[in-house]
């Protein structure tokens, strides 16, 4: 399931959430610029 499918399920279940996106980085990071995640309450 991709992040957008997860968001649809959360919307259908009336759950609060936000998208977080890495917009820039420097040095060693666990994910690249543009990586996204869902943050729930």
TrEMBL record:
It holds the Pfam family XdhC_CoxI. Residues 11-40 form the XdhC- CoxI domain. This is Dehydrogenase accessory protein.
